Every structure is written in structure tokens, then in C-alpha cells.
Amino acid sequence: MHPITLTHILFVSTALFFIGMFGLFTRRNMITLLMAVELILNSVNINFVAFNKYLYPGKLDGVFFAIFIITIAAAEAAVAIAIIINLFRSHHSIDVEDASEMKY
Amino acid sequence: MNLSLLIILPTLTAISVLFCKGLKQVRTVSLIGASAQFLSSVGLLMVYWKERAAGNGSQFLFETNISWFAPLNIHYHVGVDGISVAMILLTAFVVIAGVLVSWTQETLNKEFFFLLLLLSVGAYGYFLSLDLFTLFFFLEVAVIPKYLLIGIWGSGKKEYSAMKLALMLMAGSALVFVGLMGLYFNTHVNGVHSFDMVEISKLHIDPEIQNLFFPFAFVGFGIFTALFPFHTWVPDGHSSAPTAASMFLAGISMKLGGYGCLRVATYLMPDAAHYYAPVIILLATIAIIYGAFATMMQKDLKYINAYSSVSHCGFVLLGIGMLTQTSINGAVLQMVSHGLMTALFFAAIGMIYSRTHTRMVQHLGGLLKVMPFISTIFVIAGLCSLGLPGFSGFVAEVTVFVGSWQNPDQWYRLATILACASIVVTAVYILRAAGRSVMGPITDSHFNGLADASWSEKLAAGILITGIVAIGVAPFWIYQLIGPGTEFIVQHFGKFVTLK
Amino acid sequence: MSHMNPYVYIAFIPLLPLFVFLLLGLFGRRYFKTSSGTTGTISLLVTAALSIYAAYQYFFVSGKTDGVYQKIIAMKYTWLQFSPNVSIDMGIILDPISVMMIVVVSFVSLMVHIFSLGYMKGEERFATYFAFLSLFTFSMLGLVLSSNIFQIYIFWELVGVSSYLLIGFYFEKPSAVAASKKAFIVTRFADLGFLVGILILAFYSGTLDFGVLISRLTSLQSPEFLAITSASFMGASMLTWGLVLVFIGGAGKSAMFPLHVWLPDAMEGPTPVSALIHAATMVVAGVFLVARLFPVFCFDPSALQVVTYTGVFSALIAAVIACTQTDIKRILAFSTMSQIGFMMFALGVSQYGGEQGLGYMASMFHLFTHAFFKSLLFLCAGAVIHLVHSNNMKDMGGLRKIMPVTHISFLIACLAISGIPPFSGFFSKEDILLAAYHSNKLVYAIAVFTSALTAFYMFRLYYAIFWSKGVPSSAAPHGEAAMSMKIPLVILAVCSLLGGFVPIASWVTSDGLPLHTGIDMAFSALPVLLALGGITLATYLYKSENDRPEKIASSLGSFYKLVYHKFYIDEVYLFITKKIIFNCIGAPAAWIDKHIVDGFMNLLASVTEKISYLIKGMQSGKLQNYALYFFCGIVGLAVLFIYITHN
Fold first, then answer.
1. Which of A58, C110, C215, C386 is the most buried (most CB within 10 A)?
2. Given a cut of 50, is residue C3 above it in pLDDT?
3. Residue in B229, B424, B474 nearest the CB of C597
4. Is A43 at the interface with chain C, CB within 8 A?
């Protein structure tokens, strides 16, 4: 059994990041978009924790940042859902393509 | 005398206008403010003379120098020499006349007068500044109100004109800014960069640097003063602007450019001025001749005056380009003279337009019969424009001609002769305009009932004509005023430049 | 400038009319509605009295030193100091010509003022008229008294503008407006030459002061003289250029060919104005200018040649044209042009000093006598026009019966201009012809022919007005004009009769020394006989109505038509200005400005606009697009960052 190296973990987080990216670019549903953003944020969290564990085992900075991001993500989810609800009220849709008034 | 008074007074007036209610209050406050400016400008002239008579020979008088933003070495540095005093007097004359001709400005009167006064703040500050940064600051203050004045209260294709004017003047400002930065970063006074004109003038900036930055500064300021081929904002801007704004625009704003060309570009970069003189003279000569011929074909009175301004401002640039003391005196005189004359011209055109509702030469006729006063000031403005002795235009043009002729280069002589030839073309278009619009039979029966000038219009015209005649009949006083100022500028050439 | 000098009062001679101008111009409409005429006339009376006193003082009391009339600078103030040596000074110079001119100008102006009291009565702009007359008188007096070449230019422009204002006095008449415009522009064009000439002369002599300028440019050793004669441009020395250009200015004002086109049209102004400005005073300013610079002209024979031939050609061509015209004022205008041509070529054939300077004296003498008889002719014409309300001689005839005073005055003036002894014109014209005879036979021949023609066309005019037919029905019933109009006629008639006996020769000469002239019977016989012949011919053709003139006109055919249309010079000018300058210079300039220069600015703006239209699609409002740009940007930056850190 090989030990789990940093590279493996980075592979997972990169995969997660790009899955999130893919979701962000292809999905129309704003809830799904929000979930995609969560995926991206979590991939970053994994990176932080992994780098902390493998490169600076004596420190906790990475972990702090991860917790910080989780907090932000929670707040962001609240704001985003509030926006989505408001959009739904005015547009009767949560399709991101329908909310494109803010152009030129 | 504390020069800041001249900036504070119009600022206070502008602010107090904002607290007024109704046209009557607004115009009364504006007139009081403008009169106060007028009196303090005349007072400045008096104390200036007193100081000079007392033997004060320094270049700038009444200097105030306060550090404004130390990290960049920006100072609030004001002071006057004869040239600035002349320009300040011009501003005061035009401002008070402008307020008076706007006496019945009903729509958005508060904002209108506020912007006019704001423009005058910019002009005063500009002419007083000895620090390049504050100079630039006030230049910008003077630009923005024009956009609004034309865009809101203008006539005809006002949006287009306002935008054109603002964009071209902004482009000019941008070029000026590059020029100023070039000066700033190439001067070291006590180890720091300096914006101070007095300090910079004592240094000898590397000629190559001068040659690099001079075009930026000169063309930038030149755009303000209708340098060919960047003059096209002038006709559109002037003709769309309301009367008072046209007067300010042609009377003051175009002079900002001429003053900058002289005080900043030419004075601070004498080697480059000498190097680029042929180009300046070429462009100025083109502007004079071509502007005059283009004027001849115009049919709108405002366009006629605007194009003639292109031609007349060419004399300012020609005088500066010739680099002799007499020609530079002529350039300054031409700025003052043209400012007063063109303000009078626009005032007369505005009065005619407000009554007849047309400015087209072919629709007008016989106005001398129904409104003798307005027609007379129109003719006087025209005669001043064509350089009749007794009016300021003659003194200024003749000084430019004699000064230009002192420069012995053959090609410059040719340019001078061409410039002289423009007086004939000027006579053609002025007399055509006057002959068609104010003389001849009355073309439209509804002209018969029109009223002549009101007291405020008469007063405005009277003030401007007083200025024009005071220079035209007794030019020696203004000569003594600006003489020492231009002498410093010319000595500066002597120090750094060897004239051919 | 000494305060003890006895001529200080001369300053009031021009200043008094200036004061009256300001008074009437500013307050005339309100406070001097009816009294402006008397105000102006009284002030002119004072001015004329002062001028005559000045002449008395100069010619008889204190003008001479060692028997030579001196140039006296009565006062001088610096007006505009261009540079330490070059300044425009407002000064007063007294020398024989300026003293003679102030007398002529103020005297004729006084006569015209008195005449105008009656002639302009009831005009709505009565006060304005007298204000303008005063302005003109001020300017003209200032012109002749100028001690500085730029001062003369200043007053030169001022007389030009007074002339403009007075020609256009009836501003509701489009023809008057057009004529005033034409007069101003043509003379302005000539003034351009004058201005450049001043710049050349002033640059080489280093001064604008007449005295210094003349002394520097007339001493063969002075560095200024050497410089100006050695420098040359297109084969002529700068001295020639300077003088010829100054002469162009003079030719414009004095209506010399080809710059004469404005003068006939200028007759649109009120007739007394024509008498003052376009006959006696302003139009001779060009002659005066050449006389003022005469010492310098003497050093340049080629410039003098130009003056001579311009003068004699103008004299001839104007006389020929005058024979065919029918507007009485235009005939007088052409005769003015012709007579000024005489004065011009008299200067041209003259030289400096002594007997050689006869032409100069003759020119000034003719200027003096011409002022009287020509203003008289115009005032008579004014009286006639006042009566019949027409300028055309076809509407006149037989007027001798109802206006005897005008008739006799006109006859005296005609005899004077024709050079019949002992009328004033005879003496001055004889001197001119004598000077021409000694200098240039061709000029002499043309001059004698012209003077015979003069007699012919003047008597043609005389007969057409006063004889020919019966009294026209259009004549106003009130008979001859008011007393105020008759008095000047009588005074001027006396002057025309006796003016020849004024000893101008001993006062006004090129070098200030008296010149002795006598009448040479043998020499005078030919011109006088020819003039009499001209009169006889006119009597034969025009005394009573007949068809002989038409027969002659039709036998001359196209030549007559050519002359009648004034050699189509006006048409040529119209073609040049309207067709060539307006269409080939003005219109393209305006077009280029609108479409190319401004078009370029608009192009810049529209290119900016186009580009922003092109890229505005990026701002789609679609969230995912923005995220994609953001992502690409980040990737790009990351790649760049890696690239930079790894190299």
C-alpha cells in the first residue's frame, strides 16, 4: 500500500475544482451554480489543509484559512440564496440566462 | 494685495448663488459678485502700478506660496506680472458683461449663473497660478462648466457641440498634462521635482527633453486657442452656446490657451520654442489666412465670429512664434483685444438673435433702422475686428506685424505679409455681414416692432466698448503694463537661446 | 517738444472736430436733434479760422529760417513704443504742404457744413450725419498733420472709415451699402500695400518718424540708405519696393487706375459728402502721401516712373470715360480721378529743389485750386439734384433760368477746370504741363490731349444741365435752393475765380525755397486753344437738343460701348472677386474645414464609437460569460507568472 502523497490529494482537489468550474459554466440553474461554487471553494479548502499537513506540519495557518473559507461560504450561500429568491420573485425564474439586464 | 481674494470672491459668489431663490435674487447676487471682481481687478491694476512705480522690479508681485501637497511638492503659489494683470482685467470685463447680458435668463437660472461664475473661478485661478499643478487644476475647473452650459442652455445641435468641445478640450488638457509631467520630472530643485514656474524658469532643461515635451504642452494649450488644425471645436462650440457662454468661451477660455502657450510652453522651454518656431508660424499663418477665407463663406453670424476668432487667434500664435519682444507684446495685446472684441460681438449677436430669432445673414436686414443701439455696437465690434485705429484690434495687430517683421528671416517675412493680407479678407467678411444684416432695407416686417437694447445690455456693451477704446486710443498704458512681463520672457530667450 | 512753442494751439484744429464728433455721436440723437448742424458748423468755423491763422503765422511770421520754410514739429507724444527706436508718435508737423492742406481741408469742410445745413434738412439722421462729417474732418486734419508714417496710416484708415460711413449714410439703399463696402474694401486692399511698404521702409531706416526716415533715406552715405538700395527682391531694390507699395496705398485712396473702381460708386453718398471727401480732400491724400515722402521718391527714379505713368494713364482713361457717362455725379467723379492723375504725374515728373521742383509745386498748386472748383462743382450738382431729384442729366436741362446763382457758379468752375485764363485752374494746369514738357514729352502730349478732353466733357455736362432743353417738369417748384446752400457756392466761386493768384509757388515748394514762375504766353497758347476747341465742340453738340451726339456715338460703335461701360473694369473685378476668390479660395477653404479638418475630428470620434460598438458585446450581462473571462484572465496571468518566474 503506497502512502498517500501530496500529489494525490492535489489531484483530487484539482479534479474537484474543474468539476466545479464545469458546473459553473454549463449549468443554468442558479442553485446548481451555487453548488458549483461550493465545490470550487472546497477544492481550495482541501489544498489549504493538504499544504499545511505536508509542507508546514508544525503550523496551523492552512487550517485556519480553511475554517475561514467555510465561514465565508456559509455567509455567501445565505446572500446568494437571498439574491436568488429575489430574482425568482421578480423574474419568476432562477435561470441565470434570464437575468441578463445588466449589459451595455 | 492678497491675490487669493480674486479666487475667493467668485467662489463665494458662486456658492451664494446656490442659496438664492428666483431669477431676481440670483442675478442680483451675481451682479454684485461680478462687480466686486471687477473692482478688485481694477484695484489690482492700481496697486500693481503703485508697486512698480515704487521701484519693485521683481518679476512677480504679491506672491503667496503655501505648500499644498508636500509629498509631490505641489504648492499653492500665486503671483502676478503685467501679463496676468492684463488677462485678469480682461476676465473681469467679460464676466461682468456676461452676467449683464444674461439678465433675463429664465430657465434654470441658478445653475446657469453658478456655472458661469465657476468658469470665472477657473480663469482667475489659472491666470494667477505660478505653480504648474494648480494651473492645470484651474484649467480643468474652467473646462467642465462649458460642457454643461452648452449642453443644457445651448441651441441648435447643442449635444454634439458640447461633446465635441469637451472632448477636444479634454484632449488638449491631456496633452498639457503630459507636457507638465515632462517638466516636473526633469527638474530638480534641492533634490526634489518641482512644479514651480519660477523655479523651473531658472533651470536649463536639456534641449532634447524640451524638444520632446514642448509639442505636448504647446499643442495642448494650442487646442484651447484654436491652433490649426485643432480649431474645429470653435465654430460649433461657439455657435451652439448661449450668449454669455459664447462670450466666456471666446473672451476668456480661448485666452487660457494663448496664455499657456506663452507662459508655460514658450517661457519654460525656450530652446524648444525656438526649435519649433517655423512650425508654429506655419500653422499660425495657415490659421490666419484660411480662417479668414473660411469666414467669408459663412452665413450664420455666430459662425462668422467663431471662424474669425480662428483667424484672430492665429495672430496670437504668430506673435508667440516670432519670438521677438514686440511680437510677444502683440500676442498678449491681441489676446486682450480679441477677448473684449469678440465678447462684444457675441453679445451683439445674442441681442439680435433674442429678438429676431435668426442669426442667418440672409434673413436679417435693416436692423439699424429698428434697433440702432444694437446695430451700432455690432458695427463697432466689426470695425474693431477689422483693425480700425481707435479700437484695440488695430493696436494689437499692428504690434504683431511690426514685431514679426523684426524677425529678419525671409520666410517669416512672407508669413508676416500673408498675415497682413488677412486684414483685407477680414474687411470683406465683416462688411458683408454688417451690410447684409444691419444695413439695407428691412427684410422682414415683424422686425419693425422689435425693441432696442435694454439697460443691462447697454451697460454690458458700454463696459466692453470702454475696454476696447481704452486700449485703442491710449495703448501706452497697457504697453507699460505688459512690457516688463514680456521682457522677462524675452530675456529668458537671451539667456538660453541664441537667436539667428 | 517745447512748451514754449507758439504752435500748440494747432492741436485744437483736429481735436475740435473730434470733440464735436463724440458729442454728436453720443448725445446727438437725443439732445442735438436739430441743433447738431449749427454745432458742427460753428466748431468748423473755429477750426477754419485757426487753420487760416496758423497759415498766416507759418507763411508770414515764423515759418522761415534763412529764407527757407522749415519743418516744424509742433508737438509729439509717444503713442506706442514698439522698441527703443521704433515708436508710433502722435505728432504735428508743420511744413508748407501740411499748412496748405489744413487750410484747404477746414475751409472746404466749412463750406460743406454750411451747404449741408440746407441740403440735409429734415433728414432723420441729421445729427449722425454731422457727427460723421466731424469725424471725417478730424481724421483728414490729423492725416495731413501727421509727423509719423504710422500716424498717417492710422488717420488714413480713419478717413477710410468715415468715407465708408458717409457713403453708406442712406443705409436703406442696397446700392449705397454696396458702394460703401466696395470703397472700403478696395482702399483696404491698397492699404495692405501701404502697410507692407511702411514695414519695409521702417525696417531699413530703423524709424517711423518722417523727419528721421527722410533724412536717413536721402543721404547717400548713411548705412540705412546703403542697406535699402543694396538689398533687392525680384530685380528691384527694396527702396523701390517700399516706395511703390506705399504708392499703391496712395493710389487706392486717390482712385488711380486700376484701383479707381470705388470712386464712381462712392457717389451714392449724400452730395455734400462727395464734394468734401470724394473731390476735395480725402482723394488727394494719395498725392499728399507721395508729396510727404517726395524727398525719398526723388532718390528712386523707377518709383517716380511708376507714379508718373499711373497718374497720366489714369488722367487719360478717366477723361475718356467721363465723355460718355450720363450720371452727373459720376462724370464729376471721373473728372476728379482725371485731375488727381494730373497731380500725380506732376509729382512724378518733378525733381527735388529749385527749377527742377516745378512739378512738385504745380501738383500742390493744382491740389489747392482743384479743391475749390471741384467742391464747387459738386455742391452745384447737389443743388441741382436737390431741385430735380435725379442724378441723370437726361432729366435736366434749361435750369439756368430758375437757378441763376448755381448756373454762374457752375460755369466759373467749368472754366476753371478747363484751364481758361484767368480762372484758377489755368495757372496750376499750366505749371503742370510746363513741368511735364521739360521732363517727358510723351506725358506732356497725353496731358494736353486730356486737358482738351476735360474742357469738352465739362461743357457737355454744363450744357446738359443748364441749356439743352426746357425746364423739366420734375423740377421742384420752390426754385433755387435755400440761402445756406447758395452762400458756399458764391464763396467757392470767388475762390475758383481768384485762387490762381494765390502765390503758392513762393510758399509750397519741395525744398522750402520760393520758386519764381511766370506765365509764358507762347507755351500757354496751345493748351488754352485746345481747351477752347473742346468747349466749342461741346457747344456745337450739346447746347441745344439735337441728334449729333447719338450719331457720333453710333459711328464709334463698339469703342463707344467699351468706354460707356468704363472699359469693363468693374466687371473684371467682379469676376475676380465673385468667381475666383469666393469660388476658388473661400468655398474650398470652408469645404476643407467642414469636410476634411472637421471631418477628421469626426472620423476619430466615429472610429472610437465603432470600436466600442464592436466590443460592447463582451458586456453581455450573462454571468457565466463574465466568469469565463475571469477564468481566462486568471489562467493567462498564471501562465505569464510562471513564464516570468521560470526565466
1. C110
2. no
3. B229
4. no
What are the phi and psi torsion angles at B475 (to 5°)? -70, -15
Say how far apart CA C428 and CA C431 lie, in whole Å. Answer: 5
Residue B499: pLDDT band (50, 70, 90) is very low
- Alpha-carbon distance values, B161 to B172, B215, C428, C564, C601 (Å): 16, 26, 66, 53, 12
Q: Do residue C620 and residue A100 have CB atoms under 8 angstroms apart?
A: yes
R_g (Cα) of chain C, nearest Å: 31
Q: CB of A96 within 8 A of CB of A28?
A: yes
Which residue is closest to C620 within chain A, CA to CA? A103
DSSP per-residue letters across B390-459: TSHHHHHHHHHHHHHHHS--HHHHHHHHHHHHHHHHHHHHHHHHHHHHTSSS---GGGGG-----HHHHH
Give B48-75 pLDDT, tens digit per residue: 988 888 888 888 888 888 888 888 888 8
Query: Which three cell numbers, joined as nine digits, stand for B111?
Result: 445653475
Return the residue of B nearest to C153 by Cα. B389
Would you call B388 an interface residue with chain C, using a CB distance cutoff of 8 Å?
yes
pTM of the model: 0.89
User: C312 φ, ψ to 5°?
Assistant: -70, -35
State pLDDT tens for residues C31-68.
777 788 888 899 999 999 999 999 998 888 877 777 78
Give the 3-state DSSP-derived string for C377-408, with helices as H, strands as E and coil as C: HHHHHHHHHHHHCCCEHHHCCCCCCCCHHHHH
From C367, C371, C363, select the one nearest C509 (Cα to Cα): C363
What would the grid cell of residue B42 be? 481694477
In the block, residue with C-alpha cell 435694454: B454
> Do C622 and A104 make contact, defined as CB atoms within 8 angstroms?
no
Cα B180 to Cα B184: distance, rounded to the nearest angstrom: 6
Helical residues (DSSP H) of B323-391, grouped into ranges = 325-356, 367-370, 372-385
**Distance between C259 CA and the closest CA of chain B, angstroms:** 14
Strand partners, C81: C87
Please give the helix or strand (H or E) that residue B358 lies within, else none.
Answer: none
